Amino acid sequence: MTTPEGGTTAAPGEVRADRPAPPRKDAAARPLRRGPADPVRTLMHHHQELCARAVDALEIAAGLEAHGVTDRTAARFRHRDVFSLAEELYARVPRAAPDAAPAAAPYATAPARRSRTVCGALQLLPGAVCVAAVAALDSVTTATPAVRTAVGASGLVLLALAVRLGVRSGPLRLRHGTGPRTAGLWVCWTAGYAVYGDWLLGQLLAGGPDLPHAAPRAAVAPAVALAFALAPAAGCAHWFTVRGRRVLAASRGLEELAARVRPLLLAATLLFLAALAALLLGAEAVLGRGDVSTPVAAAALGVLLFLARLLAVHGFPEAAAAGLASAAALEALALALVLIARLPGLPPLGVPVEALATAAGPAAVPAVACTAAALGLLVCGLRALTGACAHWPAPSGTAEAHRP
Question: Three-state SS across 138-183?
Answer without folding.
Answer: HHCCCCCHHHHHHHHHHHHHHHHHHHHHHHCCHHHCCCCCCCCCHH
